[in-house]
Amino acid sequence: MLSYIEISKENLLHNFELIRGYIHPEAKVICVIKANAYGHGQNEVAQILENYADYFQVDDAQELKLLREVSKKKILVLGFVAENEIEEALRLDGILAVYDLKQVEKISEIAKKLNKNAIIHIKIDACLGRQGVLVEDAQKFAQDILKFENIEVDGIYSHFANIEDTSDFSHAQKQIDAYRKALEIFSEAGFKDVKSHISSTAGTLVYEKNELQSSLVRLGIGLYGLWPSVELKNKFEKNDFKLKPALRWVTHIAQVKTLPANYSIGYGLTYITSKEMKVAVIPQGYSDGYDRGLSNVGEVLIKGTRCKILGRVAMNMFVVDVSHLADVAVEEEVVLLGKQGEEEVTAEEIAEKTGTINYEVVARISALLQRIVL
To answer: Could you list the active site residues?
Structure first.
């Protein structure tokens, strides 16, 4: 096996326990494993956390179906579920997000056919401008939803837009105020004992703290040892609050050879050797999720040493300079992301070089690569 993803069970549980210990003991934890657990491997991560998480959260019915193969936990499905997928989602005991009355009507209709109650969480659009019920429409929505006897409102939730920006809390406060108003409206309509959640990792660290602001928190990026922002990382690591990346992306050299001077490497002739160079061919590319933006700027680790990418990253391979390595051979281990020896290539480093965020770097790793739990 040339290429695979290693998942550190120890680091994953370290991150869970670290954040779990930071929040109020009565708060319940939703482990967010949507998008293939942010590229880490949905069911592999779920099996590690099955005895720790209070809930899992996925995005859609397909993720729910896959997760039910390994988990008996309560599962929140907070993305869009198509009409033709609702029945299966209810059969699998998915807790569905709702934000549209016609959607609720269809869920109620299918739940009646199945002779069961549908458990839902209502999404509030508290100044985020995406999915959700606007606060000004909350009162009518609350009254209308009372008509459905087989719809059980288990929770009401929202989502922050920029709470990880520690320099300006004004919009986050605006969102908190809007969300609290919506909760009051639903409470006055009779929904008094429902669960509440607004915070992902950033909100959990900045807003929830140990104060039980919400009954649930959603741990996503921090669970995997990555920070929502540099500002939060700097702030928390000063207090010895350190997350540990749970993922290592490993492959192995496919070929080693020496190229002469004035020799082009890869598509588009973007790199021409200025002297004789020893190079290694790496059997990963943008079809595996290794960004083409790393062409001529990215680095990988071989023998605990950084090796620069030469030329363009192609669909299935790229080339690196190994002239500085004395004895490098075919099938030598290569680390694209993570630690090797004392060196480390971080998701943040790759994100900076490709103009994106650490979330995207890991989430785009191909699901076809095997995940190995260590």
So the answer is: 34, 267
